[in-house]
Amino acid sequence: MVELSIFLAAIRPQNWRALYDSMSRSSNTNREFEMIFVSPYDLPENMKGLPNVKLIKDFGCPSRCYQLGLLACEGEYVIPAVDDGIFTANSSIDLAFQFLESMSPSKKNMVVFKYNEGLEQIKKLSAKLRRDHAKVRSDPNFWRLGFWFHNPPYTDINCTIAPDDYFLIMSGLMNREFLLELGGFDCQFEHLGIGMVDFSIRVQNAGANTVLGEEFMALTTEWNGEHLPIEQAQSEHDIPLFIQIYSDPASSKRSNIDIDNWKQAEEKWSRRFK
Questions:
Q1: What secondary structure, in 3-state letters, does 158-199 show?
Q2: Domains in the chain, ordered, with CATH?
Q3: pLDDT-based confidence at 116, cuts 50/70/90?
Q4: Cβ-count burial 117-131 (b if 16+ within 10 Å, e if not)
Q5: Residue of higher predicted confidence among 123 and 22
Q6: What backbone torsions phi and psi does residue 115 show, to the nearest 5 degrees?
Q7: What pLDDT shows up at residue 230?
Q8: Under DSSP, is residue 38 helix (H, G, I), strand (E, B) or coil?
Q9: Are 52 and 20 within 8 A, CB to CB?
Q10: In b/e form, how buried is each residue of 196-233, taking b as 16+ CB within 10 angstroms?
């Protein structure tokens, strides 16, 4: 029986085998897991035949791909991940399961992962800036929504109804049944940046019991032309949509949505595929 499903919206097949192989860095307990890639691209030759790897071919936006990945999961627990990095060598997934075991049993228990986005960019900073960056990210408040709404990059987003003590959940160890009841990810948001802020609010409005875990991925890919559709989606669509939704006081209790909302998203994401 699969215990853990890791799913991702994936556009970098050259990275997939390294990501798969790095799973042992974060979990060395022979845990039964599957890895689900939702992507317009085929599996690399060196991954074909791996029994715990699934590929779902889809040309939709990242949030639609996340939703399809969640729906394909078979594990009791799930982790949304990305394909521009590898798992860190700190047994963070094993530690997350230990956190869950120490909590009172509930399908709403959730371990929020830290992850170090922009590792290559951080390396280029001065020594002082690197220290400051690491210092901020080691502060648990960095992972709170209040920090993100009062500091870059989201200072231009008005979201007074998002409680400051809510975690920013970009990934985590989560119960699959709870996420399905929540409706998963809102595919009105094209990309996962702002979409995961919405997810963070909804999942905690639904009563998630959250604890902060360890860093679980190091993201190493340089930002390049493949990110242009993402930047456009966030600035032209997702941020205005977020402001529109959360300017309504009724959204302060926003939680469960339709699990089939992915069907309303474009089958072929026009920002990336013409």
A1: CCCCCCCCCECCCCEEEEHHHHHHHCCCCCCCCCHHHHHHHH
A2: 4-264 (3.90.550)
A3: low
A4: bebeeeeeeeeeeee
A5: 22
A6: -150, 150
A7: 87
A8: strand
A9: no
A10: bbbbbbbbbbbebebbebbbbbbbebeeeeeeebbeeb
CA 194 to chain centroid, in Å, comes to 11
- Mean of pLDDT values over 21-33: 84
Q: SS3 helix, strand, coil % of the chain, rounded to 5? A: 45, 20, 40
Question: Residue 137 above 80 pLDDT?
Answer: no
CA distance 78 to 171: 10
Instruction: List, in sequence order, every residue forming a beta bridge with 56; answer none if it has no partner.
Output: 38
> 81 pairs with which residues across the strands?
8
Q: Where are the beta strands (DSSP E) in 33-171?
A: 33-39, 53-57, 77-81, 85-87, 109-116
Task: State whether residue 111 is helix, strand or coil.
Answer: strand
Contact (CB, 8 A) for 115 and 216 = yes
Using CA atoms, how far apart are residues 198 and 69, in angstroms rounded to an integer?
A: 18
- The model scores a pTM over 0.85: yes
What distance in Å separates the CA atoms of residue 66 and residue 80, rounded to the nearest whole number? Answer: 8
The interaxial angle of helices 192-205 and 62-72, nearest 10 deg, is 50
Q: How many residues does the chain have?
A: 274
**73 near 37, Cβ under 8 Å?**
no
Cα dihedral across residues 109, 34, 18, 230: positive or negative: negative
